[in-house]
Amino acid sequence: MRNLDAKDIGIVLKHSKAMIQGKHKGLFEGKILGSMFFEPSTRTRLSFESAMERLGGKVITAAEAGVTSSTKGETLSDSIKVISRYCDIIAMRHPYEGAARLAADAAKIPILNGGDGANQHPTQTLLDLFSIQETQKKIDGLSIAMVGDLKYGRTIHSLAQGLSLFKVRMFFVAPDILQMPKELLAELKAKGVRYSLHEKLEPIIPKVDILYDTRIQKERFPDPLEYEKVKNIYQIVPEMLARAKKNMRLMHPLPRVTEIHPSVDATPYAYYFQQAENGVYVRQALIALTLGLLPS
User: Is 93 one of the annotated active-site residues of the chain?
Assistant: First the structure.
């Protein structure tokens, strides 16, 4: 996200809106997306693949090939150099931080980062920003709370950086052991971003336009006992939303476990399923822009 400015984001959001309106049918004809997911993924992988196929492109799935290559001792760099010769663009997820950058340096085609360890998830941030704009008709001037796993959550790290380009007020709600990394807080402070840290969720709900909830990620914890202490610390139920603003929308990168009760789905605040759908339109825009098929 540090590579993008507000103008870049605005271009992506504009083209994403055009994708919802169905203006670019057949745009990807003759193009192939390499889908390389070295880490489990449902929404990100399928939305990338759906984005490509809905506009006439084709997909080759290289995840199993990548895993096989790794077990044979092949480096990620070599795998990318080979697979990039079979397609026009690659969408990749990898468990190691910095893997996307390494892949981009190795390939002669664009690499779209679908998540690299606990580091970044930039395409998720772009669909989140698009979703915020869709629900609120703006981003500047909003109050946004991020809740849950703020330490290991790559979606949170990327979103905070993306929002730092706008005039927003942020609330970070987490137990101390899962609060935002100090280096990221320092970055926000240096940019003049208004934020505050909190442990209790309910007093924050009436203050915000967007409540961005996240799963406590068991797989990111080096110590299982630490996970057990915090796994159910926040659960949103309809009663907690009684004092929420009418325009407030509840977002979540999914999957959810216990942090949002299913009964919340029927409230007007729930937006997480539409948010997931928006991933198709935003990733269509990103693919088109990186392939030079739309003006930037």
Answer: yes
